[in-house]
User: What shape does this take?
Amino acid sequence: MPWKTPAVWSPESWKDRLAAHQVVYHDRAAVDAAVAKLRSLPPLVTSGEIERLRSLIAEAQRGERFLLQGGDCAETLADCRADSIASKLKILLQMSLVLVHGLRKPVIRVGRFAGQYAKPRSSQTETRHGVTLPSYFGDLVNSADFEEEARRPNPHLMVRGYQHAAMTLNFIRSLIDGGFADLHHPEYWDLRFMEHAGLSNELREQYQRMTRELGEALRLTEILGEASIDDLTRIEFFTSHEGLNLQYESAQTRPVPRKSGYFNLTTHLPWIGERTRALDGAHVEYFRGIRNPIGVKIGPACRPSELLELIDVLNPDNEPGRLILIHRMGAAKIMEALPPLLGAVREAPTLKRHVLWVCDPMHGNSQNAGNGVKTRNMNEILAEMESAAEAHRQAGTIFGGLHLELTGEDVTECVGGAAGISEADLTINYASLCDPRLNYQQALEMAFAAARALRSPSAR
Ligand code: PEP
Ligand code: CO
Assistant: This one.
């Protein structure tokens, strides 16, 4: 029987539903105090920014823009540092430049940052040498150290997470306002960074050629006085995180003067994870009522009928710019799992569903290396992205964006690719507390590969 949505929604109505992956806090009073504190703090983002992102996503749904979403699997409080934030911003900017140039359309830049602190785990507990403790659920919940005190869920960490998200966002806004990312001077912010990035000569040359061409094109556009120059050069950044901890999300969910509805003001674009998208679950209940654009992760087990129901519950008025479907199938499964979903949404009866299809080629390709370290193979990541391009081409649907786990630093977490990282190299600089991320070079390689795979056939 189709799922019937209850009529009354409030920022707290999710509490009547079963919440998968919710933290079990033992100190109720401390949770109430943390939530009250969060409620009293000013928002991190504004409803105007959220609405702007929704209108950009609506354009991406029409094929006029491309969405690039990327950052850490799990941000940590310790990593709230100038260098790590700036290098994430830089790699996302550089990738977007490659995509703007390759796809000939503007890119919407969305960081997995300023709040990506809560993680779903496959097991609630972790056992080491006969000792069993709660798993690490992200810095919003507990600490990674394998000690009883550190692993106990601590409600006050929600407030600390919020404060660190604010500091992160504050620095990002200042960098951008200060001209850090002025596209008129790509040579200023690119090349210096590339010098110490250990880039292969081939990638460096491709990138240098492209920034030169882009700089010339910008100057030409300016000389000709084209109206679109502003749009091309204005660097905007939006934030996103998995809206997993509903105590945290709902504490900053509020009405805004002179606007209807409720906005989640912790982030521009929250998303529902693959493990928490049950139709009758707490997350779908919470997400259906907020005005933000939202994402949903879709894995290979999702059936077409289930997806259509999910779309209708989450976007009952079929609003453009509201819903992003982030498919994460795995290289081996995508050509079987994705086409039926694309077909079902495209041919859905009565009305055309407005969705933005985004490819996450990371989460279906995790594996354990021989030494037990969690890794991903760059070849599979690239293969999934290329298969997604093919599947969308065949279905006549739009490959609207990429969702990636990456860092601007030279970590060794994913194997393969032009960087030639082997399993033996994984221990050199494995810094992620959660999933393995693309490093600087792998991220840039991915951007070039996506630009190639998605270019219109005539331009290839
Ligand atoms: C994630 O994005 O880190 C994640 C847990 O993804 P998924 O919900 O797709 O497994
Ligand atoms: Co992850």
